[in-house]
User: Fold these one by one.
Assistant:
Number 1:
Amino acid sequence: MKNKFLLVIITIMISMLWACSDDPAYKEGKIYNGFRLIENRFVEEVNANCLYFEHEKSGARLMKIAADDANKLFAVTFKTIPAHDYGTPHIIEHSVLNGSENFPVKSPFDLLAKGSLNTFLNAMTGSDFTTYPVASMNNKDYFNLMHVYMDAVFNPLLHSDPRIMKQEGWHYELDSVNGDIVYKGVVYNEMKGAFSSPDRQLSYHIDKILFPDNTYGVSSGGHPSAIPDLTYEYFKAFHKTYYHPSNSFVLLYGDADLDEELEFLDREYFSNYEKSDNNIEIPLQEPFAERKQAEESYSIAEGADTRDKTFLSYSFVTGLNTDRELVMALDILSDALVNHESAPLRLALQEAGIGKDVAARVSTDKQNVLQITVQNANPEDKERFKEVVFQTLNKVVEEGLDRETVEGIVNRMEFRLREGDSPQKGLMYLFSLKNSMFFWR
């Protein structure tokens, strides 16, 4: 009798455990520390549960990739949409890391870089976003990094200390009484260096032509000629507009305790905000009635020969970056058409004697751009360049691409996607998620 009783108890316990394993700890529709769980799904490709939340009070969105990875990543990202070449998002990226209400030191970033146990620490400005990612394998350090970065973006000292914008953006400088007044500033100097590159100049002018009616036609990093037009009032207003939880996306990756993460973010930051009704959208650029072309110049050394120093470029705007199949197809197409030694367009341009090198790239802002560029060409090659490009494209449409070449490109892409190319998996997933998070609500 005693043995039978034990058997029944064990059977009941096993049944209870089995029922619990089918019942996720986090249920869709329920609220956890102020965050409503919208979706909880196991994603095979990342071998982890992915939980997507929205903070009820502030409107902040958050995803947790609950991977079994000790290298934890936290990132807070904002959609930032400049209307001018002032470089406002770039200057704010630098400025928020110059002290905050809870960490009122000159440069918390530098202190963290030297003294924390971080495995990654940075901030980045793109054409339509600014992101602040940090990673650590130490749990206490991870939460400390999160605290410093959240305070930096939501409670920066830049609103009360105009010297921060002057230091990071631009200011006047006079070295001597009889000297010239010059512009200086961290971002100003950085962008002067960036725009000394003809490739940067080319991209800048192409974007101006392709996107005259939306944010992609301006430089989010800032153009040296326009940065000194940035005023302190505009600078502060930009931060207030875009650095709100309703315009943010938080990514949590790794094995940190999710309850602890959500509780901290709600208690310290998001519970202090009300949801904003400011709907920040980027309008699509309408197609042009006819093809556009332009000629621009870049600087070379005084007295240098201009022969074989022309860039020729042809760009196509096609589809949206949220169409992941199209983006992958464009990447494959750019490699198959141009970016290998026996690519048909590369060979055709070589046979025509146009330039010394050719490359294709795909940029994935809201609208994808496929750009084909020849270097070390000459102005008289322009018309022949266009002819060769379209003759070759038409030939490829009729005859197709080499099957083995395309299969090799697809296999390499699959290997990169399966294996990953970085020990910072969380950071890799951040950039994979960015477009879908910001352009699909």
Number 2:
Amino acid sequence: MSKTVALHTLGCKLNFSETSAIGRQLENDGFVKKDFTDIADVYVINTCSVTDNADKECRLLVRRIQKKAPEAMVVITGCYAQLKPAEIAQIPGVDLVLGAAEKFNITQHLKDFTKGDSTKICSCDIEDVNEFTASHSINDRARVFLKVQDGCDYNCSFCTIPLARGKSRSNSIDKVVAEVEAIAIKGVKEIVLTGINLGDFGKGFTGGKRNEETFFDLIKELDNIPGIERYRISSIEPNLLTNDIIEFVSNSKKFMPHFHIPLQSGSNKILSLMRRRYKKELYAERVGLIKTLMPHCAIGVDVIVGFPGETVADFRETFDFLHGLEITYLHVFTYSERDNTAALEIKPVVPIHTRNERNKQLRNLSYQKMQYFTNRHIGETRKVLFENPDKNGMVEGYTDNYIKITAPHKKEWANNIIEWKI
């Protein structure tokens, strides 16, 4: 009888693509996939470690599995597993911890492991992780998340991602094109390009030879592939979002007018402490060009509040900067201390209650920005990809410029692009 497996993802879109790839691999090796809420023989949790919440959520999920399926095998992989394997191994109920180099060898590890053995850690020095493993989500969501880049060579003072993911490395354009063509055959309409530092695509070495490809080269190639109707670019650093990329998207029929550009702070003093590679003036310049070429374009922003050294004046500078920018929505993160990061040495530390209050203020601003952006487009007819299945008689989708539309469910709309009056 085939063993059953249930998978769960914590964190970013790239993690979703990897969990999906791991799930397909396990199915190909004879496992039967189950929902994570069901009883299964094996549970796989693909973790994030950007915030303390991700760590806590992992522990909570393991406790729940212990209650409902105490005999099940629990496998933890992902960023948290690479950064703190020994800590995870101490969580009651965890059987197997797979680091960055081992998550795609999961089937072999499961074959070699018996429930009841002591917790096994399969990890390595992150400096030794230099292979790129392709992955994409499919069937999990109507939009496919396609990983084209992994790792990061930046050393932002708050971030553990380089320690968890390793050096920047990419797929080749030829291999990405082949993967996209295979996805198109399955009837997928939209692909979201993902990476840890997406704009760094093409960087690194293959076979000892320096790569010469760029992210701009990649999107030009993808624009010509038949079958895929829409692409989105996930988070891209402002210093890597070139004028050429912006101008190309403005003229493309397939790349959607939607950017997500991390800012992190609207104070140059804080940006410097964070070791970011730009100043707020460059950020404003990028937003200005986007809005000049595509006034209807949606722009999402990542911002961190409560970073060490952030004064009342620094936060006000960030708030006012964001208030004055033509952006659409914010992803607001409350700074949390991470081991082995330079930010731990920066003083003074911002009190937790102050961090939380600043988070609340920016989330309120985000709501206002999104309302303003949506209201500006009321009455327009835009193309909507309806993607989610029937939810209590309703269906959801997004316009080209990322306005969420909820409508009465019609079966024929599923995974189809419809002209829709907002």
Number 3:
Amino acid sequence: MKTRLLVAVAAMAFATCAFGAPPTTLTLKKGGTTVPATTPLGGAPLTNLEQDPAMTAGAADSGDGGALGAQPMVNRSIARGHAGSQKMGTSGRAKSNPQLLGGFDGLNFHDQRYANNGNQFSVEPPDQGLCAGNGFVMESVNDVLAIYDQAGNKRVGPVDLNTFYDYPAVINRSTGAFGPSITDPSCYYDAGTQRWFQVVLTLDRVGSSSSLAGTNHLDIAVSQTADPTGAWTIYRLPVQNNGTQGTPDHGCTGAIVLVTIRISVPTPTRFS
């Protein structure tokens, strides 16, 4: 039995840390299972609550949720429908002679904002995580994912990431309740293990308010087979780096720092 290494990276914000602390071993905790299922597109038009209040005081992922002042207004226009997964041909050629040999329309802003019945925020930039293998293409952005076959036909999606990771909606537009804030998606298909890996950074809230709790963790989803449209197992790993929940404390100021996690994944000799 071989062992492969999965490297997961959390977000980075400006921080001042006292390095040199001894290495800390963190334990992955199983967070249940999930099956990607398309969530309905719909919901109300744009409102004055288009950006996550916890993210608007500074840069995205800053964690600076205090003294936000008035909620900013967002002036954006959104296409009224999804363009679909239409293949694009090679009818044109630029003067420098590049050629588009193939492709298909992936996720767009309409998918992001109106997934899960519109219980989403307007998020830019998308932070794309793209991976492919075993006849599938998986695309994840802030904060939705979709799965296509190799011809570009959509098999599943859009699925908002909060639903995929079994959390409440990031914003319930009927009740005003906030769910965890998910960001920085990435994905990888490992041909050796025939498994898909999907990783996000999740920022916890104070209850159902918009305020960030200060704790955050990596959510790591691993497919149970080589088919990404089937069942996945979810693992959670705290990464706040402040001494709580078994994390190290490097005396950092600035909320979130770059965190690299190396996870040993056993490679079975065969799959049924």
